Amino acid sequence: MKVLVTGAAGFIGYHVSRRLAAGGGAGVLGIDNLNDYYSVALKRARLAQLAAHGAFRFVQADFSDAAAYGRIHADFRPDYVVHLGAQAGVRHSIEQPAAYVQSNITGFLNVLEAARAHPPRHLVYASSSSVYGAGARIPFSEDQAADRPLSFYGATKRADELIAHSYAHLHGLSLTGLRFFTVYGPWGRPDMAPVIFAQAIAGGKPLRLFDAGRPLRDFTYIDDIVDGVIKVLFHHPFAGKPEAGGGATATAGAAAVVATAATAPAAAAPSRIFNLGHNRPVEIRRFVQMLEKLLGKKARVELLPPRPGELPATCASLERIRAAVGFEPATPLEDGLARFVEWFKAYYGK
Ligand SMILES: NC(=O)c1ccc[n+]([C@@H]2O[C@H](COP(=O)([O-])OP(=O)(O)OC[C@H]3O[C@@H](n4cnc5c(N)ncnc54)[C@H](O)[C@@H]3O)[C@@H](O)[C@H]2O)c1
Fold this sequence. Notes:
By secondary structure, this protein is of the alpha/beta class. It has one domain: 3-Layer(aba) Sandwich (Rossmann fold). The chain is built from 13 helices and 13 strands. The strands form 4 sheets. The protein has a 7-stranded parallel sheet, sandwiched between helices. The chain has a two-stranded parallel sheet with strand order 7-10. The longest helix is centred in the N-terminal third of the chain and has 21 residues. The protein is globular, with a radius of gyration of 20 Å. About 7% of the residues have low confidence. Bound molecules: nicotinamide-adenine-dinucleotide. Nicotinamide-adenine-dinucleotide binds next to helix 1, helix 5 and strand 5.
């Protein structure tokens, strides 16, 4: 079995690649362009860990280059694709929107086009809780409209979901989008709260809390995310049932044509969307207190007003993914943060 993982040098891509390669059942090809949005040394350090696994191979490549990516996909002919590469980050998307169009829209299209030429059994791609925007109700459930994103990043991720639906419908590709909720853990991203806060606390630097630290975040531990990705990847109810000529939607009448994967997955295009979160949101200021305790140091907190583009709260409804693949998050925040801090101290020498 061959699995292609994009964004393999990234936080989630590294962990997913490691689990797949260590499992022994899969040959994993990781690709990443190693861009410098954040520390390239961290991306290389993750790859160095992966190099220990004989089942893992890495190619440095950019999937926004259609020809280069298409060749890699065609040569490898993956049975499964996990598309985790993207330009991530809510704030950065306000300053550098073009980078998001390049990787998240053009790049995503290239990944789908390559899959169209040589279809894998299932392609799972990363979406985000950021697709839930204005008017979203807690807990966020996949059948909510998600048509008023508050950040450009969220808009590109929602666009991916819509593009995926059209490709599933038109070309019979089995495509599943996973809306990740604030992932944390060892080897985490330096542009995200856990590393930024831990750096500030450990270094005695000011720690800025927007909206006075009141926003609620559904922090999800990386191992739970990997469990969810792998459960969903190998659970592909549409596989082996290609929907010829546009599929069920073309033949099953008007009801199927307007049905979405949310309401009638079996009758509509082979496209699904699942939340993948923890369903236990905590206030950011509480999160900081937990980090203070684990690092044995007080934070120098600066309270600031809310920031544009940020959601006041996130919380994943897990009903759909629980029903489909039996996903259940297993890591309480206390345990996950302890493991994160252990890695943080070792990696950053604090
Ligand atoms: N970490 C989270 O909390 C979170 C939450 C919601 C969604 N997501 C999504 O999950 C996925 C993985 O996130 P992550 O936290 O691992 O981010 P990450 O930035 O650590 O990993 C993404 C990787 O993709 C690579 N990449 C970007 N553009 C590329 C391109 N054009 N060609 C090749 N490689 C490219 C980057 O170099 C990076 O290593 C992303 O799609 C992200 O948007 C993450």
